[in-house]
TrEMBL record:
Record-linked PANTHER family: BETA-GLUCURONIDASE, BETA-GLUCURONIDASE C-TERMINAL DOMAIN-CONTAINING PROTEIN
Signal peptide interval: 1-21
A Pfam family recorded for this sequence: Glyco_hydro_79C
Keywords: Hydrolase, Signal
Gene3D superfamilies associated with the record: Glycosidases, Golgi alpha-mannosidase II
Organism: Viridothelium virens (Speckled blister lichen)
Protein name: Glycoside hydrolase family 79 protein
Coiled-coil parts of chain: none
InterPro entries recorded: GH, GH79_Enzymes, GlcAase_C, Glyco_hydro_b
């Protein structure tokens, strides 16, 4: 498509404004982030996992199609962490003939059961998605002696399900134990429970789990197979310090594969939370991720944790399952792109976006309920854009130093904008611009035509030629439907989540990279564009 046609297409939008020229290095800058394979991954609420995955008689093919779409872009399907708050409520009962029995106590949560038992059929859900690797979350929170017995009873079932077809990624014991002394949903440890108490319990119970594995799945007990993500703290500044846990010997047995931390950019009912101020705001993302970057930097100096990959085992926009109108909007999808790529650029090496049935921030709702309709939700399109931008990283595992792909943040002066560069084998491949300036299409009559910003880039002369442009687009930041990536819809209604090319969205655009390596790309407010270079 010629430049003039692009401008014609964009002429339905408002006035153009131009930024300064942005220089992008042809090779990755020092410290550029190296994502692990499956960088865009998911965390699924323990109690919701059967809804998302289905079971052997009724596998959830819609979910599987959405996971395949991401796998096709990156060479590896997303890793699935099964866990969250309900992981520490879940009590196994081997006599139960259904996957779960949950009781919602509305004074504690209206979103998920706070009393939960699960039975052997639960583990069928690990068999419905081919070529997918999982972590299974064991209960550490409930520590009555019957709950401890139930934990050990569950282990043979977990290993029977995960010990085949390469399904097991790692295990996890306990979700956000740094809130065990303070949780509003029930305090499960005394005030004198310290980092050392946590470490002692964690080492003791992972040892007991290993003993059970010896009996039922002994080939999962080797040093390269019996591994965990930990400590899975809610963040920094809670009642336990993650750094102290490593100093106190959390990895004394060498049993940890990933350092896992959790992050939410804000809370669903926190006063003052807005789309523009909280989500579509790069400064906010930088300030929030700074906690994890400090933790990662400090841990790099500690025996035991040094050299382990740092991941977000659970993250999403607004804690307490998201806010309607914010977390389910296209603006949240743009936030997700900026947040994920900022993590990637700073060596947070995998991000598990948290999901649960009826949650407002979901990438997709896996089943029809009376609270939410089955479907692909706006944030999924952000996941797709991130996966497409990062490209194939299937060689980058936690135990190799493959560096074929790296991601760099390109600093911009306006906090409502962000830009990133992707490198393959040290050569510049792609540039992403996320224009997070809010455009509310439902207020179009007062907001006027949608403004467009022109971004001028300077790249190496070796990139001269035509570069294709792919867009993450919707009518505005408040759109919750009608979202496309590069003209593709992944909606449930069209082909059960598989990509469908829409004929009413412009595709095939390109920009000309001049012989001096300069080019410009127009990006409407509240949208993102990737320029695919050939350097
Ligand atoms: C996407 O992945 C699925 C599952 O691996 C595979 O069956 C399908 O052929 C792939 N599609 C493309 C276009 O690569
Ligand atoms: C386990 O489930 C069975 C079958 O529903 C039930 O009879 C039994 O009471 C349960 N056990 C416990 C400890 O709750
Ligand atoms: C499998 O899932 C279907 C649909 O949710 C459900 O009706 C059925 O009871 C489940 N089977 C088992 C063994 O849990
Ligand atoms: C919540 O309600 C249950 C009864 O459904 C009650 O037993 C419990 O004490 C209540 N918890 C809180 C924290 O209010
Ligand atoms: C539960 O945790 C408390 C505090 O760490 C500990 O004193 C108690 O022994 C634990 N109970 C069991 C059954 O492990
Ligand atoms: C675990 O091993 C024991 C002893 O071999 C066996 O009886 C039991 O069925 C196994 N459990 C599972 C879930 O496979
Ligand atoms: C462990 O043994 C089981 C049963 O023989 C086999 O199916 C599985 O692939 C093995 N897993 C690993 C990780 O070696
Ligand atoms: C912690 O407090 C409990 C009572 O809540 C007490 O039984 C226990 O001995 C205390 N542990 C330590 C290490 O002080
Ligand atoms: C964006 O976030 C920064 C840092 O938290 C904050 O100072 C600023 O006010 C936010 N911008 C808007 C428009 O709210
Ligand atoms: C991170 O560490 C730096 C240097 O120690 C400190 O100045 C900063 O306040 C810390 N930021 C956060 C968010 O913890
Ligand atoms: C590295 O990790 C991958 C994926 O988890 C695994 O397949 C492979 O066997 C591991 N290699 C070594 C040398 O441990
Ligand atoms: C584009 O086509 C899709 C699928 O047919 C439809 O849902 C959507 O409303 C159309 N968009 C516009 C702007 O016409």
């Amino acid at each position: 498509m010629a430049k003039s046609q692009v401008l014609l297409m964009l002429s339905i939008f408002g006035a153009l404004s131009t930024c300064q020229t942005i220089s992008v290095s042809g090779n990755p800058p020092a410290g550029a982030g190296i994502p692990l394979e499956g960088f865009v991954s998911f965390s699924i609420e323990f109690s919701s996992f059967p809804d998302f995955a289905g079971n052997l008689s009724q596998p959830n093919t819609f979910s599987n199609n959405l996971l395949n779409n991401l796998g096709n872009l990156t060479g590896t399907k997303p890793f699935i962490r099964v866990g969250g708050n309900t992981q520490d409520y879940a009590i196994f009962n081997s006599s139960l003939d259904v996957a779960t029995v949950g009781i919602i106590q509305p004074n504690l949560s209206t979103d998920y059961p706070t009393i939960l038992t699960f039975g052997p059929p639960y583990f069928e859900s690990y068999a419905t998605w081919p070529d997918t690797r999982f972590s299974h979350g064991f209960n550490l929170g409930r520590n009555s002696s019957s709950a401890r017995d139930a934990l050990l009873d569950s282990v043979p079932y977990a290993c029977a399900a995960l010990g085949q077809d390469g399904r097991l990624n790692v295990w996890e014991l306990g979700n956000e134990p740094d809130l065990f002394k303070t949780s509003a949903q029930g305090i499960v440890r005394p005030a004198n429970w310290t980092e050392q108490s946590y470490v002692d319990e964690w080492l003791y119970w992972t040892g007991r789990i290993k003993e059970v594995l010896q009996g039922n799945c002994s080939n999962l007990t080797t040093a390269t197979e019996y591994l965990y993500m930990a400590p899975s703290f809610a963040g920094t500044g809670n009642s336990l310090d993650p750094i102290r846990t490593w100093e106190d010997g959390l990895d004394n047995n060498g049993g940890i594969e990933y350092i896992s931390s959790h992050n939410y950019i804000g809370g669903a009912t926190q006063p003052g939370v807005t789309l523009q101020g909280t989500l579509m705001n790069h400064s906010m993302t930088v300030a929030s991720v700074a906690h994890q970057l400090n933790e990662s930097r400090l841990l790099a100096g500690i025996n035991g944790s040094a050299g382990l990959p740092f991941i977000l085992g659970e993250t999403n926009s607004l804690y307490n399952e998201g806010a309607p109108g914010l977390s389910n909007s296209f603006g949240a999808a743009l936030w997700g792109v900026d947040f994920n790529l900022y993590c990637a650029a700073n060596n947070i090496r995998r991000v598990h976006m948290h999901q649960g049935t009826n949650y407002r921030y979901d990438s997709w709702q896996p089943i029809e309920t009376n609270k939410s309709s089955i479907g692909t939700k706006a944030p999924y399109y952000g996941n797709i854009a991130v996966a497409a931008f990062i490209g194939n990283v299937s060689g980058n595992t936690a135990n190799t130093t493959a560096q074929n792909t790296s991601i760099a943040n390109i600093p911009l002066s306006n906090p409502m904008e962000a830009a990133y560069a992707a490198y393959q084998d040290t050569v510049l491949q792609r540039v992403m611009v996320i224009n997070m300036q809010q455009y509310n299409y439902s207020n179009a009559s007062t907001e006027g035509p949608r403004p467009v910003t022109t971004y001028g880039f300077q790249v190496p002369e070796s990139c001269t030629g035509n570069a294709s442009v792919s867009r993450l687009m919707a009518n505005g930041s408040d759109a919750i439907t009608g979202i496309t990536w590069d003209g593709l819809s992944y909606n449930y209604e069209l082909m059960n989540g598989m990509p469908v090319r829409l004929n009413n969205v412009t595709i095939g655009e390109s920009v000309a990279v001049g012989t001096n390596g300069s080019f410009s790309v127009d990006v409407p407010h509240s949208s993102a564009a990737v320029v695919n270079l050939r350097c």
